[in-house]
């Protein structure tokens, strides 16, 4: 997989625990696999259909070629980055605010 992108739409569900956005009709055109140890760039875009005016989110994932090409230059930062990620996960006071779209 070099790149995969898909749309998710506002979920107008009456259930409190339902996901706020979803796409229950996503059919990939080809297989895609996230490979362990490969850096990816994950993006979330807010879009609006020109035809219908429907707002939706587009999720995109692609291999981060720049990170692969420059991994030797920044390899010394790996331990620092992992340490910061561990600290972020350990935080108990994570904000629980709604994301405005």
Which descriptors would you attach to this protein?
alpha+beta, 101 residues, 28% strand, 4 strands, 22% helix
Account of the protein in words:
By secondary structure, the protein is an alpha+beta fold. It has one domain. Helix content is about 20%, strand content about 30%. Strands 2-1-4-3 form a four-stranded antiparallel β-sheet, with no helix packed on it. A hairpin with a 6-residue loop joins strand 3 and strand 4. It is elongated and about 50 Å long.
Number of DSSP E strands: 4
Cα-to-Cα separation, first versus last residue = 28 Å
Beta strand %: 25-35%
Q: What ranges have pLDDT less than 50 throughout 5 or more consecutive residues?
A: none
Q: For the largest beta sheet, what order do the strands appear in spatially?
A: 2-1-4-3
Proportion of helical residues: 10-25%
* Averaged pLDDT: 79
Q: Number of domains in the coordinates?
A: 1
The global form is: elongated
Rg to the nearest angstrom?
18 Å
| Sequence of secondary-structure elements | EEEEHHH
**Number of helical stretches of at least 4 residues:** 3
| Major sheet | 4 strands, antiparallel
Q: Pairing-aware structural class of the strands and helices?
A: alpha+beta
